[in-house]
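User: Hey, quick favor. My workstation is busy. Could you predict this chain's structure for me?
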Amino acid sequence: MSTNLAPCAVSLIFVRMSLVHIKIINRSNNALPEYATADSSGMDIRAAINEPLTIKPLERALVPTGLFIEIPNGYEAQIRPRSGLAIKNGITCLNTPGTIDADYRGEIKIILINLSNEQHAIQPGDRIAQMIIQKVEKAFLVPVIELNETERNAGGFGHTGKQ
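Assistant: No problem, here it is.
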């Protein structure tokens, strides 16, 4: 059976990502954060600890990274969980996404929590989170007496049902 396919017009869209220059000081024994693949959004962040750190079930830990960054005005860094660590071990970040403002110069530390029923050991150099660089928009708040109505209005917290 022969199939005649009409020629298709292929449209290629090239997306040019802008590079943001971030100054960094690395006081850890780990390599600089890096993107795992060419299209990764986040750079892997590693634990800068000298010995394993055990996190018990429902326990929180503040994990140092040894990293200090200078983010340009108009940008922020967001710290997010690593999906593999979350699904396999129940380890995730609190305060997610964590925001690092452009004027912060202290060490990046990651707040981890163990949501599993078993303790988990973070090893020195383990990838514990990812960092995403984002543009920031500033808002100018305009005080008013009332807001425009919408079909939804104040409906929230499941008001549309389960399905």
